[in-house]
Amino acid sequence: MNRISAALLGISALALAACDGVEWHIFQGDDEGAAGPEKVASQKTADVEDETEEVPASPARKPALGEAEGTFALTGARLLTMAGDPIARGTILIEDGRISAVGADLDIPRGMPVIDAGGLTIIPGLVDMHVHHFGEAEGPLYIANGVTTVRNLWGTVQTVSLDRGAADGDYPGPRVYTPGPLTDGPEPVWGDQSLVVTSPEMMRGAVRAQKAAGFTAVKLYETMTPEIYRAGVAEAKAQGMKIYTHTPRAMTVEEVIALEVDSLEHLEDVHNALLPDGYEGGDGRRDYLQRWAAADEDKMRDLARKFAEKGVANSATLEVSINRYRDMMDTERFFESEQGAYVAKGIRDWWQGSADRSRPWLTPELVNAARDKQLRFVKILHDEGAPVLIGTDTPNPFIVQGFSLHDEMASFRDAGFTEEEILDIATRKAAAFLDASEEFGQIREGLRADLVIVEGDPLADLSVLRKPAGVIAGGRLYDRAALDDMLAEARAAAENSYVETVDEETPTEE
Ligand SMILES: [Zn+2]
């Protein structure tokens, strides 16, 4: 297993070096983050203390859920169905991996195995709406964190295979929704790895080819001309495909919004639209953070209304857009945290190196000022009715699969979203965005039985989701012991692998 994992992690390292630059070149530089203590403090919100005590049974509960597969019943749990009011003590019947019934008083078919989930709370499986998923070895990290679905932002045949494998129960991993390959213009940021188009005609062909290959969305990138970009948007719409996008360098974010794309990633170019009149520009590598720190709050509402009016969702990816800078300013804290143990040694060296290069120009004041503005903008988007998505851009540096989704959700809490709003965005609304409301996202008859079972009350404290008592994915129930086994194996793989390929390849100096 270790040998295989190392190989897979090696693939990941190369590929993630690529995805990493997805943002790095935007930020014109290395990257890196800061200020850890706030992150911890932010999870301790005031309402935690009030409500955790009311949650029945968690302390007394000991028996493990046990494992189950295919057809079984879960009884006695509080159900946050995301399809209506919570059910205080409900039963879920699962047949062949799908929910066949949900309710307070259900007859359990004779002979159906029963799992007692009394005292626990069950929510739909969580969704990370911006990942780069490369291999089976990553699957358990998502599952152990309750992430049962991901939106992958650069599709390949490998990605599609990963989805099939997870669906068929070949390995524990999330279901994967993906556009085709990253599609870029004449000077592709990622070189030959991208699908390169150099004319509107080629662009239209590239979209149709992706449609024919079975992809349901396209990912449009940065170096295409406005003419090529518009051709891509028009053809994708004609083919009934979704459009996930960065802002091309030759266009403004307002121009992209006007085309009614489906999602903008990383708030890309938003900071330039929010600059105060007469802003003179920042300096070098600080420029990106300085622009955010300078953002004019009066302009936020107008821009948010444009997103709302055109129905363009923002996948803010606060983990990559800002939180990693905090981690970069205190790498010791990061690597000693629980998730640090899942970073392969070679990747760890690479992340450390990038942090070391960035630390000289990072200050907590700058990072926090930029972060405050990003959080403010995301909240204003939501208040104005513009859709927001919760995604992380794992595995960029300091963003570990699965674990990072909880950090992203904590940032949304910092931004002023309620726990209920956050859960809704990370489950029901994610499925709706993907046109998959009849597949997952709620606890409802007919949907996949992708479920997270926790002690405590996520509506009072989202951090209870970090250590599920059980997760159901691919038709199988993994209880805490099974999840711990998966994690132990992933830690061993990280410990025993060494990947030397990435450091110099990271295109941070784009
Ligand atoms: Zn990405």
Automatic annotation (TrEMBL):
Pfam families: Amidohydro_1
Domain Amidohydrolase-related: 143-476
Taxonomy, superkingdom: Bacteria
Signal peptide from the UniProt entry: 1-17
Keyword tags: Signal
Cited InterPro entries: Amidohydro-rel, Metal-dep_hydrolase_composite, Metal_Hydrolase, Metallo-dep_Hydrolase
Chain residue ranges for the region called Disordered: 30-64
Protein name: Amidohydrolase family protein
Organism: Parvularcula lutaonensis
Organism ancestry: Bacteria, Pseudomonadati, Pseudomonadota, Alphaproteobacteria, Parvularculales
